[in-house]
């Protein structure tokens, strides 16, 4: 459970709790001789148990959320059709759960369909006042849930974005980098593939701050990030690793293919002019991920290549293989 996302943990806990709480009802309904409802409860318990296993082993959270919401809505509508409106109240907490698990639009569609089916089911057996009361209360619950969770999701998205970007350069910050590296390592354990990273360091950045001031130094970093992002591939992300150090990943290529990418970037930066006509060069270390290593070890090898680039005169690219050859 330690390496699972919050969404996975929520779904696993919810399905396990549902299976446990439904179990006693199977026995109680069986004692009362209500074999129809006992069978439905047994089916619900079995479905939630299967759902738990599915999430645990596949980790397909989005598919699991949608499947669970559709299944629960069908189950509630079926129970209401069989046993009447006394079982309708299960739909109220379920609708809130749908809006919590899914996007507001998807949850709204599922709730609307469920309410319409229940309205069709109850119409012949309820008085007009009772029918309108039940359906309007369901409709208002769905509307209020939509408004609340839509605003919640938008606010949460903004907070997540703010928590994952560097406030100066608007590149990813260390937190976002750690999350990205964790995802890459999980994917590599499932199926190994070529993935490389570029560790980029601005040469003599302290001199830029000393000669032009920290405000100009900050502007250089902002313009540098914009330049790298403009000329990077859409699948690659840039993260601020330190003061003037940045990591570009995941380059889904091996070392031989990553080196020309880094060299092109190095040349592009050297040929560009930044704020106050400041000339900037960078040194780049390149490392390819090795099976079963940690993110720290991966970055450490790129860092060793970067230091060799600095020792070689800066404004150049060094790949980890070169470091190994020099050491031998």
What key phrases describe this protein's structure?
single chain, 328 residues, alpha+beta, Alpha-Beta Plaits, 2 domains, five-stranded mixed β-sheet, two-stranded antiparallel sheet, 7 strands, 10% strand, elongated
Describe this protein's structure.
The structure is a single chain. The chain has 328 residues and is an alpha+beta fold. The protein folds into two domains: 6-164, no CATH class; 174-327, 2-Layer Sandwich (Alpha-Beta Plaits). It contains twelve helices and seven strands. The strands form two sheets. The chain has a five-stranded mixed beta sheet, with helices on both faces. Strand 2 (237-240) and strand 3 (245-251) form a beta hairpin. It is elongated. The two termini are 42 Å apart. The relative contact order is 0.07. The mean pLDDT is 89.
For the largest sheet, list the strands in their spatial order. Answer: 2-3-1-6-7
- Strand count: 7
Ends: how far apart? 42 Å
Radius of gyration, whole Å: 28 Å
Shape: elongated
Class of secondary structure makeup: alpha+beta
> How many domain regions?
2
Number of helices: 12
> What is the percentage of strand-forming residues?
5-15%
What characterizes the major β-sheet? Answer: 5 strands, mixed
Helix content: 55-70%
Order of helices and strands: HHHHHHHEHHEEHEEEHEH
Mean pLDDT equals 89
Question: What ranges have pLDDT less than 50 throughout 5 or more consecutive residues?
Answer: none
């Amino acid at each position: 459970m330690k390496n699972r996302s919050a969404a996975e943990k929520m779904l696993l806990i919810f399905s396990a709790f549902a299976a446990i709480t439904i179990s006693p009802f199977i026995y109680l309904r069986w004692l009362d001789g209500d074999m129809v409802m006992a069978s439905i409860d047994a089916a619900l318990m079995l479905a939630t148990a299967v759902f738990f296993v599915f999430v645990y082993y596949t980790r397909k959270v989005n598919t699991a959320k949608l499947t669970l919401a559709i299944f629960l809505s069908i189950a509630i509508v079926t129970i209401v059709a069989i046993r009447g409106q006394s079982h309708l109240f299960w739909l109220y907490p379920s609708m809130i759960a749908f809006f919590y698990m899914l996007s507001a639009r998807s949850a709204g569609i599922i709730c609307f369909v469920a309410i319409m089916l229940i309205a069709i089911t109850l119409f012949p057996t309820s008085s007009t006042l009772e029918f309108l009361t039940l359906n309007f209360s369901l409709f208002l619950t769905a509307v209020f849930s939509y408004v609340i969770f839509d605003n919640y999701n938008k606010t949460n998205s903004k907070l997540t974005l703010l928590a994952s970007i560097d406030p100066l350069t608007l590149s990813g910050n260390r937190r976002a980098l750690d999350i990205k590296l964790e995802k890459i390592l999980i994917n590599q354990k499932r199926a190994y593939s070529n993935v490389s990273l570029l560790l980029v360091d601005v040469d003599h950045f302290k001199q830029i701050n000393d000669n032009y001031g920290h405000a100009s130094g900050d502007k250089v970093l902002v313009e540098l990030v914009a330049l790298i992002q403009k000329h990077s591939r859409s699948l690659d992300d840039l993260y601020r690793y330190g003061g003037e150090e940045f990591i570009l990943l995941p380059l889904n290529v091996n070392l031989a293919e990553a080196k020309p990418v880094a060299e092109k970037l190095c040349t592009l930066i050297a040929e560009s002019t930044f704020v106050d006509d400041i000339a900037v060069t960078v040194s780049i270390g390149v490392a390819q991920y090795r099976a079963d290593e940690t993110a720290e070890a991966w970055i450490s090898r790129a860092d060793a290549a970067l230091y060799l680039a600095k020792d070689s005169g800066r404004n150049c690219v060094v790949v980890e293989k070169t470091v190994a050859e020099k050491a031998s």
